[in-house]
Amino acid sequence: MDEKKALGLLKKAPLFSRLSEKGLKSILKTATEKEFKGKTKVVAEGTAGVGFYLILAGSAEVSRGSEKLAKLGAGDFFGEMSLLDGEPRSADVTALEDTVCLVLSPWAMKGIVSANPEVALDMLAELSRRLRETDRALS
Fold first, then answer.
1. 16, 56, 99, 104: which could form a disulfide with 95 (CB 3.0–4.6 Å)?
2. Considering the domain boundaries, does residue 80 fall inside one?
């Protein structure tokens, strides 16, 4: 994907929308772009989490066992929990169609958060939203 398109998608992602173009470019320099064919498992529940994923194009489904938990699309992210706490993945994430993700290593993500604290605040807001959705689903 060309840099201009990737920058535009990063800017649209709520997690990075408050960053300057310089900040967005620094993310692109440290990230790896990975493509996943449809029906491919991107991460597996119970495995070690070694990356943060931001969907640039396509869609993915989050599931635990046979239970579908969420559908994600461009601008959505996953892998933040394992990145933050070092615990194994809490769910499977499977590409529903050909999907392109920007993948950040734990050390790259920590550098981004250190340089841009607003990213951490936005990540916390999203984690809180997801927890509330889970609470509502369970009650």
1. 99
2. yes
Q: What angle do CA 95, 73, 34 make, to 5 degrees?
A: 50
Looking at the domain assignment, is residue 138 inside a domain? no
pLDDT tens across 25-40, in order? 888 889 999 999 999 9
What is the C-alpha separation between 34 and 102, in angstroms, rounded? Answer: 6
Containing domain of residue 92, as a range? Answer: 3-133
Q: What's the token pair of residue 107?
A: 């050390």
pLDDT tens digit sequence for 58-116: 999 999 988 898 899 988 889 888 777 888 898 999 999 999 999 988 888 888 888 88
Q: For residue 20, give the 3-state DSSP assignment.
A: coil
Half-sphere exposure of 93 (CA within 13 A, CB side): 26
The one-letter amino acid at 24: L
- State the CATH number of the domain containing residue 100: 2.60.120.10
* Encoded tokens for 62: 């989050």
Q: What is the dihedral of CA 10, 14, 17, 23, to 10 degrees?
A: -60
The residue assigned the tokens 């509330």 is 132
Is residue 73 in some structural domain? yes
The residue count for the chain: 139
User: For residue 81, is it within any domain?
Assistant: yes
